[in-house]
Amino acid sequence: MRDLNSNSAAMSEELLAWYDVHARAMPWRVGPADRAAGIRPDPYKVWLSEVMLQQTTVAAVRDYFLRFTSLWPTVSDLAAAEDAEVMAEWAGLGYYARARNLLKCARVVASDFSGEFPDSYDGLLKLPGIGPYTAAAIASIAFNRPETVLDGNVERVMARLHDIHDPLPGVKPVLKERAAELTPSQRPGDYAQAVMDLGATICTPRNPACGICPWRNPCAARSAGTAAELPKKTPKKPKPTRKGIVYLAKSAGGLWLLERRPDKGLLGGMLGWPGSEWSDAPGPNPPFEAVWQEADGEVRHTFTHFHLILRVMTAELPEGFNQNAAQELIPHRDFRPSSLPTVMRKAFDLYQGL
To answer: Which of 100, 123, 267, 333 has the fewest other C-beta atoms within 10 Å?
Structure first.
């Protein structure tokens, strides 16, 4: 097995050579050939993609990214957009705090930096919603800074490369040190994407394709036969289950009653159905007095920290209903179920099946 510390430069070159041939094509990426020809990545697109990709797959993000960049081609265009419009376009992508931070960050870049992203890790880290990983990714990919990018794919590659058996998340600092040792000063942006691609396509969580890996020879876990069991993770606590009630109401004239959730908290700022709290034993909280009918079945949805079971109640919205400040009456012709968060869309789908 090759000495990893003394051969980091050679290993980086090997990975870049592999990337030059096998780089994944993505709508936000400037491929290695174009980059070599002098085409620079758009920092706005790099930032947007990195925010969207947090805890979300490339396949899920692709269409959202294309729609966002079609509607708002620049960060200044996004900064000028209406909050409700952006939140509606984000619906279904989940983790809605990302969308709120997206707008905050866009507006800071547009107002304080004349629409140009800072080009350093430290400068990027000061922007709303940008943490250490995202700052490193943007600095590296967009501005070719030799920053260490450590996502889940890179963690897995480093754990296997060095046969590290200490569990995540506690071992993250060690994995970042190992990743930093391999980060080159030449082509760091391509290298960051190369090591992420390696984890996504070769050094996969299950059944890693070690036989075609450009780092198969120096990989300690491959030699030890432990690659498939790494990285190890501290067992997670079981998720609790909460319950709730949502109320779907439409008037005879075709008006839907929706309610905008508070900016802070789960689904913050999103339109959804009026409802109860989410707890072990939620009490009824209808938006108006009526004979509410319970739909057959229930809505089940899983968030990061808990499972949710919703009962769906339905009634006709009375004509002349006076909504409160958080509620909106939306004509049927303007109602877009696709603009609802996934859990609220599930409730609508159950209603549609009545």
So the answer is: 333
